Amino acid sequence: MINNQRLIALTQKVIRVNSENPPGNEYALSQLIKKDMVSLGLAVRAYTFDRDRHNIVATLKGKAKDSAKKAVLISPHFDTVPAGKGWAFPPFVARIHKGKIYGRGASDDKGNLAVCMEVMRSLVEDKVVLKKDIVLAATADEETGSHDGIVPLLKRKILKVKDAVILDSDEFHTIVAQKGLIHCRLQVFGKKAHGAYNWQGVNAIELAAKIIGKLKAHKFPYRKHSLLHRPTVNIGTVKGGDKVNMVADFCEFSIDTRYLPGTTPGQVLGIIKRIAKSVTPRFKIEIDDIQHPYEISTTHPLVQTYVKTCRCMKIKPQLTGSEGATVISFFKKAGIPAFATGFAASGTAHTTDEFVRINDLCRGARVLEAFLKEYCGQ
Q1: Which domains does the chain have, with CATH numbers?
Q2: Which of 28, 122, 141, 208 could form a disulfide with 251 if both were Cys (CB 3.0 to 4.6 A apart)?
Q3: In the prediction, which pLDDT does 378 show?
């Protein structure tokens, strides 16, 4: 049975352990999670792909012969963005005020982490034996791309599960579609000259400005989606030039583009290249990150069971799409059906005085436990 007071105390406990990323300060919290799961008698392993950045995987075995093949993953992350300054409530104290727990990571994603840990404890204490394995993967490095977290866990087939529920969302929102992203840098090359004789040079900054204008004006083709907005392009940084009285021979700007299911990364990059080429032949594109778009059918049993469970418990889950990137996109390549949900407070992630509502945590724990019992079979 879910113990509300224990869940509240656990949420405070994990918030008080600093796990800011960068710099990637997750070791202490990973050991807390590991110790807690070991105390339940679960099979627990730590996996690290960079020094002191452990991912904790705990398994509650099912009773069926093929329980491992039908395993269900529940996965929160436990790194946070840096706390920064200006807090009215200290970021690592986990103070309770008017039904809310304040602290860095309260919503993103330590409240959801505590819920998963409490659900595992409740199932063990109640001696619930399900037909399928339940695998809890508490992961590092989500805030900087998951390169030391969920990505290698999937790529190396450490997580051999049939279905996945990612706990990294707000107020029972159920993310079933997500845009893809491309992060790249477009480098433009010109020719130096004295600023007083600028016609003797080629100004890379001015060329970059023309490319940026064309990129922002371009209407990227897309297939309309009921849960997602149209594609977007954001210019995040611009670097170039040496001195005010010199013609810049180099300029680099970073591009964040989000695209919809039905579009490929190659199509998006092809458009960017054609636009750049229409301004200058002297450019180069450096790709920093590509994530593919993702969607799961709203009629998939995994989604349907979760929605039904919520409604039975008088909660209205909103089926939604994510304009940003959650880790569900990484499950596409692995061929694992996944959706994301969670019990965070909308609009508080990454903010000063981040908080999570206690009532949502307690309801969320009951919903997640009931969902697992239903979907995994008793």
Answers
A1: 4-178+293-376 (3.40.630.10), 180-291 (3.30.70.360)
A2: 208
A3: 82
